[in-house]
């Protein structure tokens, strides 16, 4: 089961058969996914329809499609472990800020849950043999032969830039699967944002709780003030320019694209239009 109680009855009533591991493998393969690829997946489980086994089945199907020669990657971000002074959705009272900074537990790759990532990444981070990067806010998790290469060296101040798993995915000419989500969720466009030279690029002071030499500390650092407000526009322009196909997996729209040409396109787009 993958639907929430409010949508479950509608999902059942639409007449579709439940998705299974095998039917998902068939549909992932039809999107272009195959053995040996390195694929970054952004997902919304509820958009797929009824899945026999829910998130477990989706992960099993992704791994089965890629085979042990492939590498599966997901964002496992922990936005709650950040400076409350920067929170907007929703903001919290300023009187809370020192309490949050002093009391938030330090990031632990094995224990800290994801936030706003969805059911599939939250389960994936606990999957056997999955590795997770050390970034206390913008971590990624990966399973497969390229996992260590992708995740090592994830720099604190370069969360989504040149010293992040996104840049390492670019190095291996990896792929992106947007499964039930659009380009507004496409973190690879932040890599383009880091690389692009455009007027008005903003930076902010960020903070997080992390372990430093085994001791909890609140650490502050400067990073890009990431802006995804035009990502859907960029993605649409790319799809039109490159005649990119839109697929279906269950009831969800799916996009399966190479990351490298998308990032290169987005850098040029940002430098022209931002």
Could you explain the architecture of this structure?
This protein has helices at residues 5-13, 21-31, 54-66, 97-103, 119-124, 147-151, 165-171, 188-195, 231-242, 259-273; strands spanning 38-43, 71-75, 131-132, 140-143, 175-179, 203-212, 215-224, 247-249, 252-258. The chain has 274 residues and is an alpha+beta fold. The chain has a seven-stranded mixed β-sheet. Strands 6-7 form a two-stranded antiparallel sheet. Helix 2 crosses helix 3 (54-66). The longest helix is centred in the last third of the chain and has 15 residues, at 259-273. The model has no long low-confidence stretch (mean pLDDT 95).
Write the layout of secondary structure elements.
Layout: H1 5-13, H2 21-31, E1 38-43, H3 54-66, E2 71-75, H4 97-103, H5 119-124, E3 131-132, E4 140-143, H6 147-151, H7 165-171, E5 175-179, H8 188-195, E6 203-212, E7 215-224, H9 231-242, E8 247-249, E9 252-258, H10 259-273
Parallel strand pairs: 1-2, 1-5
Antiparallel strand pairs: 2-4, 3-4, 5-9, 6-7, 8-9
Helix pairs in contact: 2-3, 8-10
Offer a concise description of the structure.
The protein is of the alpha+beta class and 274 residues long.
Relevant terms:
274 residues, alpha+beta, 7-stranded mixed sheet, 34% helix
Calculate the mean pLDDT score and round it: 95
Radius of gyration: 19 Å
Query: What overall form do the CA principal axes indicate?
Result: globular
Strand order of the largest sheet: 3-4-2-1-5-9-8
Class computed from helices, strands and strand pairing:
alpha+beta
Helix share, percent: 25-40%
| Low-pLDDT runs | none
**Helical segment tally?**
10
First-residue to last-residue Cα separation: 42 Å
Q: Note the main sheet.
A: 7 strands, mixed
Strand runs, count: 9
């Amino acid at each position: 089961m993958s639907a929430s109680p409010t949508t479950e009855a509608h999902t059942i009533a639409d007449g579709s058969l439940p998705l299974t591991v095998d039917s998902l493998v068939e549909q992932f393969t039809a999107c272009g996914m195959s053995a040996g690829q390195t694929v970054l997946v952004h997902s919304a489980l509820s958009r797929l329809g009824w899945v026999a086994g829910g998130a477990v089945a989706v992960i099993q199907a992704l791994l089965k499609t890629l085979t042990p020669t492939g590498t599966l990657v997901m964002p496992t971000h922990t936005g709650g472990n950040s400076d409350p002074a920067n929170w907007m959705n929703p903001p919290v009272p300023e009187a809370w800020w020192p309490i949050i900074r002093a009391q938030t537990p330090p990031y632990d790759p094995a224990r800290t849950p994801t936030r706003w990532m969805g059911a599939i990444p939250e389960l994936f981070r606990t999957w056997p043999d999955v590795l997770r990067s050390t970034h206390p806010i913008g971590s990624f998790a990966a399973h497969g032969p390229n996992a260590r290469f992708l995740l090592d060296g994830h720099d604190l101040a370069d969360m989504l830039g040149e010293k992040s798993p996104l840049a390492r995915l670019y190095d291996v000419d990896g792929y992106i699967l947007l499964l039930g989500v659009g380009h507004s969720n496409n973190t690879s466009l932040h890599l383009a944002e880091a690389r692009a030279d455009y007027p008005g690029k903003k930076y902010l002071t960020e903070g997080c709780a992390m372990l430093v030499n085994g001791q909890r500390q609140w650490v502050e650092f400067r990073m890009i003030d990431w802006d995804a407000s035009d990502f859907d526009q960029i993605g649409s322009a790319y799809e039109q320019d490159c005649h990119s196909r839109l697929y279906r997996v269950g009831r969800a729209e799916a996009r399966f694209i190479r990351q490298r040409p998308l990032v290169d396109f987005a850098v040029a787009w940002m430098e022209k239009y931002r």
